[in-house]
Amino acid sequence: MKIAIINGPNLNLLGVREKNIYGDKSFESYFDLLASKYSDIELEYFQSNCEGDIIDKIHSVGFDYDGIILNAGAYTHYSIAIADAIRGVKSPVIEVHISNVHTREDYRRVSMIAPACRGVIAGFGLKSYELALIALTGDEE
Ligand code: DQA
User: Fold this and answer.
1) Domain 2-137, CATH homologous superfamily name and number
2) Stated pTM of the model
3) CA-CA distance, 131 to 94, in Å (whole number)?
4) FRET pair for 92, CA 20 to 30 Å: which of 55, 64, 81, 104?
5) Ligand 1 neighbour 98 (Cβ under 6 A)
6) DSSP secondary-structure letter at 98?
7) Considering only CA atoms, which of 123, 63, 135 is closest in space to residue 94?
8) Which residues does the annotation mark as catalytic?
9) Burial of 69 (0-12, 13-18, 19+ CB in 10 A)
10) CA–CA dist 137, 29 (Å, integer)
């Protein structure tokens, strides 16, 4: 089983950026833990601050991977292009957020990509990614 985790803009700064909201762990260290816990799954991680690169990555994995876990960062709230990319591929995509976007600024309550996604998980910190993985794989361990 192959799953890609795609992180969008500013998520390369996890562990440094707004720690009160996003925590003090880097995504790389979290990813290593996740990959070793779910060693039976081929997990891949990609991050970009550029909309086009995120779209290219969705296209390149979206026809043969079993799922995509996508935290599009702020693009979530306004990228019709990423929503179209999700609609254009075959793999199910789960929208993920570290913070509970519904408790924050009004503009974060809007998601352009949610209607194109299989489901949405938000507000559980980095654990949101593991919950998305469980949703995609059906593994409840
Ligand atoms: C985020 C929430 C977005 O509103 C924000 O722009 C981010 C991170 C989250 O994971 O909570 O960059 O996607």
Assistant:
1) Dehydroquinase, class II (3.40.50.9100)
2) 0.97
3) 10
4) 104
5) yes
6) S
7) 135
8) 22, 97
9) buried
10) 22
Counted residue by residue, the chain has a size of 141
Count of beta carbons in the 10 Å neighbourhood of residue 33 = 12
List the structure tokens of 133. Answer: 């993985």
Note whether 3 and 69 are within 8 A (CB): yes
Each domain of the chain, given as residue ranges in start order, spans 2-137
The model's pLDDT over 65-122, given as tens digits with 9 standing for 90+, comes to: 999 999 999 999 999 999 999 999 999 999 999 999 999 999 999 999 999 999 999 9
Residue 106 tokens read as 């009004």
Mutate to test the pocket of ligand 1, among 16, 51, 101, 103 (most ligand atoms within 8 A of CB): 101
CA distance 75 to 9: 8
User: Which tokens in the block code for residue 21?
Assistant: 């909201």
